[in-house]
Every structure is written in C-alpha cells, then in structure tokens.
Amino acid sequence: MKNKIINYSKVFESIIRVQMISSLYISSLTYNELKEVCNCSDGNMATHTKKLLSEGFILTNKEFVNNKPQTTYSLTEKGREEFVNYIKLLNNVVNQEDKI
Fold first, then answer.
1. d(C-alpha 71, C-alpha 51), whole Å
2. What sequence ranges are listed for the domain Winged helix DNA-binding (predicted)?
3. What CATH number should be reported for the domain holding residue 38?
4. What is the mean pLDDT of residues 52-80?
C-alpha cells in the first residue's frame, strides 16, 4: 500500500488542486467561482490551473458573457478517473488503518 501512495500523481500533493478537482467533479465552474471555492489569489489560481491543464486534468472554455471575457473550467475524463482512483486509494488507506 505504501508504494501506491508514494507513486501517486503529484497533482494531489496540493490541497488547492484537490479542492479544484473535487469542485469540478461536481460541475464546471467559472474562474471566479473556482477562485472563491479555493479561497486563493490570482497567482495561485494561475499556478494551479496551469499544472492541472498540463497534466490533462482540466479543460478551459473562454467566451464572452455580457461583453466580458469569462473562463470556465471543467474536469476531463482523465481528471475524473484519476480523482476517483485517488479517493479509492484514500479509502483503502483508511480501511487499512481501521484494521490495525
């Protein structure tokens, strides 16, 4: 079990990225909605969204709403699968701890 945790995606090493992924698992969110959920600065948002984009966990959709640019983020199928696997891994760890 220990090796599975060590070898797991570095995407999940950041609480902000975990918050982003778990929020996007429920529904797509605009930049401002996601920023509010994660309670982070514009700089943190840029850093963490770039990481999630480069790893193929999220997609962006940019459009104009009421003549203002709006970015919406959504979870990719890969992001969804990786998140589900991460939750299963955490559940297995917790279940193992209960047996000790």
1. 16
2. 16-94
3. 1.10.10.10
4. 96
Token pair in block for residue 26: 């429920």
Band of the pLDDT at 7, cuts 50, 70, 90? low
What is the reported pTM?
0.85
Q: What's the mean pLDDT when you consider all of the chain?
A: 89
Q: Give the residue, 26 or 91, on which the prediction is more confident.
A: 26
* Structural domain boundaries enclosing 10: 2-99
CA distance 33 to 88: 27
Whole-angstrom Cα distance, residue 42 to residue 36? 11
Q: State which H helix or E strand residue 86 sits in.
A: helix 77-99
Burial class (CB in 10 A: 0-12, 13-18, 19+), 16: middle
Provide the number of structural domains found in the chain: 1
Residues 61 and 19 sit within 8 Å (Cβ to Cβ): no
Q: Of 8, 12, 5, 4, which is closest to residue 52 (Cα–Cα)? A: 12
